């Protein structure tokens, strides 16, 4: 790593934080003092976030978080970039650090079996294991694991409906879940156990840990992994990927998408051209004009 590169740290932990509202101000203040940028979510069920800064700054914020005994074993994953992936620092209060919409699902009480990146290939190669990508459709579209099923959800709240319609605890005895950093599949595993599924596994550290730890020659990952910052996607070794975002709809787009006659910079891409009315086009042209004038960056919506 070039010592001048920016460190991007993704972190989360399900833990009871009954005083989470009181943690917001001191955490935001400390991050701002360290010149850290990114977003951290606080809720009664835990903490979730992605932040970026120098090596020293990131270490300081992680140390600050871990100084709380409840977060002493907080794990994080790192990648690197040459350009700042965030513009501001935000610490937000939420009902859930990842929104499933079912309050009684509590990963602090019960979760599935963690599987390390090194053991993941063996698990998902087992024909008796149902492999499910818990991410949303636009994320899955640019990369996923071999044999993985795409629930085609638009938001995580739709995952329970997908399970109820497509999986049966009496039929699907072994289920393996994965997501970007581990947080969605951890909560999904808690939900599935509550629905009567017996053997639910999930990838510890998520896709990001897998891409970091498993050599490309041994990998069962195909494509790139969508991330919620201005890098848009990462590859094996957590190197920055090749995708950009459509300014019109926020969908990740490839070079092939940009070569399509349906792609118009700042206006549309093959993923949104079908819903582009004359009125929407006019609004989008004005937004693009303002963007070009003000050089405002585009950040993916989580």
UniProtKB/TrEMBL annotation:
<feature type="domain" description="Rhodanese">
    <location>
        <begin position="125"/>
        <end position="219"/>
    </location>
</feature>
<dbReference type="InterPro" id="IPR040503">
    <property type="entry name" value="TRHO_N"/>
</dbReference>
<dbReference type="InterPro" id="IPR036873">
    <property type="entry name" value="Rhodanese-like_dom_sf"/>
</dbReference>
<dbReference type="InterPro" id="IPR001763">
    <property type="entry name" value="Rhodanese-like_dom"/>
</dbReference>
<comment type="function">
    <text>Catalyzes oxygen-dependent 5-hydroxyuridine (ho5U) modification at position 34 in tRNAs.</text>
</comment>
<comment type="similarity">
    <text>Belongs to the TrhO family.</text>
</comment>
<dbReference type="Pfam" id="PF17773">
    <property type="entry name" value="UPF0176_N"/>
</dbReference>
<dbReference type="InterPro" id="IPR020936">
    <property type="entry name" value="TrhO"/>
</dbReference>
<dbReference type="Pfam" id="PF00581">
    <property type="entry name" value="Rhodanese"/>
</dbReference>
<keyword id="KW-0560">Oxidoreductase</keyword>
<protein>
    <recommendedName>
        <fullName>tRNA uridine(34) hydroxylase</fullName>
        <ecNumber>1.14.-.-</ecNumber>
    </recommendedName>
</protein>
<keyword id="KW-0819">tRNA processing</keyword>
